[in-house]
Amino acid sequence: MTALVLFVSLASAQALRELGSRDGANLQAPSWSPDGKKLAYEANYHEKQIVELYQGDPKTGSFMKVMPAVRPGASAMTSGFGSAAKPGAVVDDLEWSPASVGTRFVYAASNDLQDYDLYLGGGSALAPSPGADGGPRWSPDGRWVVFTSARTGQGDLYLLDVQALEQPPRRLSDDPTASELFPSWSSDSSKIVYVGHSANGDNLWLLPNLTEKAVRLTDWDRSQLRPSYAPDGSRVAFYANHDDVGRFDLYVVEPRPGAVPTLLAKGVKPNATGPSWTPDSSHIVFVSDDDEKLDPIAAVRVADPTKVAILELGTVGNGDLDVAMSDGRVQLAVVAQGKKIDRERSFDRLFVADLPALP
Amino acid sequence: MIASMLMLWAEDARADDVAGHVSQAKFFLKKGWYPDALKELEGAAALPDGAIDPEVWYLIATVRYALLDVAGASDAAERAQTFARDDDQLYQAASYAQFLREQFGEVEVVPPYPGFAGKLDLEPVFPPIDPELRAFLGRLDAKTSKKRTFPVVLSLPIGDYQLNGEPVTVVAGERVSVTRSSSQLAGSGFANAQLAKFELGVGFANWFGPQVANLQPSVSLHGAVTQPFAGLLAGVFVDWAPTWYDSAQGQILFSSEGWSVGARLGYELANSGALVIRPSLGWRLTQIPGVERSCLSNGDGFTCTNDGPAELIVYGTGLANVALAELSIDYIDRSRKRTLGIGVKVIGEEAFGRLPDHGVARLRDGQGVDFVLADDARGFTATGFRFMPNVSIAF
Fold it and tell me: What's the complex ipTM?
């Protein structure tokens, strides 16, 4: 595949803005709320082995740290004071709700017992249980939250009913030979694509609805990771290193058994939340794994993978990114080691810019 | 030594009192008897040892929260934080105080005047998904569904709400003040009827104008029902004004006719305290008796005109459409569910009447004679004034 590589520069009107940095931490996993008005990110203090989570308003630059709240509840009134589990070192994995239920979010947090639970933003733990919970994904219709939990074994998908969060979650998968991870909802909230991790490799599976058994989408060796449904539901994008164990490539596949994946780009840096689609599903924005070019941001046209645009936004050492629509503009949030003009580049910082028009 | 033992015994007694209160409170909590539990805990907090006991204050915070007193809960949680004796207690108290601070705000609902009794109608724009906040709003709904006296201050989870028909946004840690009119606080549907007002008045009325110059001031009896409707006050009424009038022969004649029915629409002036000041515009259909016409014989009977030579004077009852403007001032104690009020009404009106085209005039000897009215003699106008003290019953 020969790609036609274009270079798209950021016009001054789409000026790059640095939103923040945290001393001693690499910022990672930026995530826009569906309406593009809120932004979350993680601060990874590698040396201290701490991950903090922040969410806030990118316009004002005001971000608040997200922490699990202690909520006494009825039983806590009679149990001991000072006996609540304290937060642990990791708070991450924030997932925004769709706008139809208000601006809410869920996230995962560890506690001092080294257990991970899901929490509702501003609320208490959701379906707490021994065994790590993580990877929450809110359905686009606002009704469900699917997540991975080790409560019954090695990692199964569970489903929370948002309208009855006090009820125990429903188990969706029960393969004793594999763990189910990285769920991604179709835009009509009826299907879930996820990664089945087993001794034979990591492959994509499709739950055609919430009651039937999953069907296989890919059957390759090595790792196929972080599926991401297109907003229009036509395709699923994912990363795969089945060609070269040292390199991840970007693919798309139609969400039906037997579909043949299409290669979009070679050598990409896997994004924390999976491949980032533009809101109109025409392009995927990714970071090219190219040390010589300092990991530039690029966008590939899904219908014609020969058309790849390098987005000259002015940042270098790019990492995780996310794209969202707000007030009619497509916005990009990206963590990067700095701007081209910076003398010093160390820890990853957070930048936002309007996405330029793509070919 | 005895003194030391007495001191130890006294200290134990004090400590036991706190522990005893807390133990009793926890028993009440298991039963769900929160007011009783709060009483025990506040008893503990009133003791010297209890006043600095973080667990006492933490429990007070949780019980006050359960009783929807978020401000009180927040204060108690902060005291628990202040008096925390180790990191675990500090974390738990501080975290709870932070939750209350960041997840709740206040709304003050201001009525048209203090002491107004009405109902709260609160709906979140996005129904809460957090089970505990949903339960909080459920408890609040049960508490606020009854009629209450305004102004009130509510603690609410942050977010957008519809409060008695208008939006309000609750912001963390802030109090927003909103004003609602009496009709908004009165509720809707059948609930509205509970703020209906019946009015009974007796006063005097008079018509002015060249065509009704012979009418004398008369007594007017008035009955009305007023209800809040679409932000206004709608009323229907019935009047009876039996009329005395002068005849051409200098006699004073009487007619028991003078019934009318009508409707009015007005609004209540805000910030008028316990006085209900209500300007209204309305209409009524009324009988106006005693309208004089001059008649000449036409062979078969008589033909009558407005004024002209007269072989016969007849007095007819016209039916008039009356446009009216009313000012009503009542004193009502709105803090009570059912209450009597007193007030006055002043009404100015303009009548556009029409006499029937024919009739039978009764002579003094009882004989009846037919008469017809020329078309241009049927219409008449009059300007009216009524003044009416009245009593009202609101419930």
Answer: 0.75
Question: What domains, with CATH codes, occur in chain B?
Answer: 2-102 (1.25.40.10), 106-181 (no CATH), 196-394 (2.40.160.20)
A328 at B interface, C-beta within 8 A: no
Which pLDDT tens digit goes with each residue over B161-176? 999 888 999 999 999 9
Q: Do B92 and A70 touch (CB under 8 A)?
A: yes
Residue in chain A nearest B102 by alpha carbon = A122
What pTM did the predictor assign? 0.70
| pLDDT tens string A93-102 | 999 999 888 8
Whether B132 contacts chain A with CB within 8 A: yes
Is 50 exceeded by the pLDDT of residue A13? no
Q: Any chain B CB within 8 A of the CB of A113?
A: no
| A72 vs B contacts (CB less than 8 Å) | 58, 61-62, 65, 96
Buried b (16+ CB within 10 A) or exposed e, B324-352: bebebbbebebeeeebebebebebebebe
Asked if A104 lies within 8 A of B129 by C-beta distance, the reply is: yes
Say how far apart CA B252 and CA B248 lie, in whole Å.
Answer: 9
pLDDT for the residue numbered B194: 42
Name the region of B70 (left: φ>0; alpha: ψ -120 to 50; beta: rest).
alpha
> What CA–CA distance (Å, rounded) separates A279 from A322?
11
Domains defined along chain A, listed by start: 4-69+85-354 (2.120.10.30)
Q: Is B130 within 8 Å of A86 when comparing Cβ atoms?
A: no
